[in-house]
Amino acid sequence: MRDEARGPGWAGLLLLWLLGADLRLTILAVPPVLPLIHHDLHLDEKLVAALTGMPVLLFGLAAVPGSLLIARIGARRAAVVGVFVVGIASALRGIGPSLPMLFGMTILMGAGVAVMQPALPALVARWFPARVPLATAIYANGLLIGEMLAAGLTIPLVLPLTGGSWEKSFAVWSIPPLATVALVLFFTGGETGQALRARRARWWPDWRDPRTWLLGVLSGGASALYFGCNAFLPDYLHALGRPGLVDLGLTALNAGQFPASLLIMAFGLRLARRRAPFFAAAALGLMALGGLMVPSTFVLIAASALAGFAAASILILTLALPPLLAAPDDVHRLAAAMLALGYTITFFVPYAAGAIWDASHLTISALLPGVAGVAMVIGGAAVIDLRPRASSASARDGS
């Protein structure tokens, strides 16, 4: 057991990877079984968008309270609380099956993830202060692999194991987060009371800093592209008369993120804090959305993979910015504000697209979240100040 301030050594990289995976495993277990839930609980497209977008909204609403929790009990303990809530709530989603239980536990699960997300950049800054780019890339890689595993294994592996029950599949995906809790508690130690008291006042974001808002726009753009595709791709392919491509399309969307994580792990120092990579990834996102309108099977799958690559590139580049731009004690505050703004944007964009789809009955409405996300990335990257901050923001805002 080690003190959090010193970190758990190389085992901490594995723990960061597992925590990153737990951010998405239970969330991305939903899209593959959406047609089953849609049928059993009689959901319309607005409720489909709400079910997939509700955790995203909680990511935004609970991010700043998560920063407060980090200041009060430490990043490690906050991460443990968050991942424990994720595991328990995920297992309870399928009880019934009941629409109130499904939505209620989805909300609780989203709150758990929201607490974890600002804790991870704070853990990176405290456990690996000299290796921030590497540690950030590793937990981002875990996040992406978690998305890929949930999307790619639910239909061919988990559903057969549970007899085709989407309810039991949620319980299966709750096992990894609960196992992570045990590993974090075993391999790491908490901060001292003195260290916690020294940081308790520093949790409220600096809303006067334009970069706080622009980081939220970049984060929201990346998530709108990714979550919009995950939410609507199954029903979009059903509407095109290609239901057999749902599993392959979701797998390609999430697998396409993996090479993006490797690319940034290899060339992160060259890509970090530059505008050009954001513009390039946004251009690829537009190409992917155009490809989804082509009826060819090969083009549809390739476009899904390209959309995943573009979204992941933007996401990882954005996640790396708080540790690179903020003073060490301000990382969790900036990350919390970025996530609060970004995920709030991400919830409302797909929900609006679902409402437009219901009203217009135009299948192409499924692509609107991606278009909006790309536009936000281009706008945010064009004006954000990417110079690092030399001093703590806490001295300026009085927190």
Overview of this structure, please?
The chain is 75% helix and 0% strand. With 399 residues, the protein is mainly α. It has one domain: Growth Hormone, Chain: A. Helix 3 runs antiparallel to helix 11 and helix 7 crosses helix 15.
Which secondary structure elements does this structure contain, and how are they paired or packed?
Elements: H1 11-22, H2 34-41, H3 45-61, H4 63-73, H5 75-92, H6 99-127, H7 132-161, H8 166-172, H9 175-187, H10 193-199, H11 210-239, H12 246-255, H13 257-271, H14 276-291, H15 297-319, H16 321-325, H17 331-360, H18 368-383, H19 394-397
Q: TL;DR?
A:
By secondary structure, the chain is mostly helical.
Number of strands: 0
User: What is the straight-line distance between the termini?
Assistant: 32 Å
Structural class: mainly alpha
**Low-confidence region ranges:** 1-5, 391-399
Per CATH, what is the topology? Growth Hormone, Chain: A
Number of helices: 19
Can you tell me the overall shape?
A: globular
Cα-based radius of gyration, to the nearest Å: 20 Å
Query: Helix-strand pattern, N to C?
Result: HHHHHHHHHHHHHHHHHHH
Name the CATH superfamily classification: MFS general substrate transporter like domains
Q: What is the highest CATH level, the class?
A: Mainly Alpha
Count of structural domains: 1
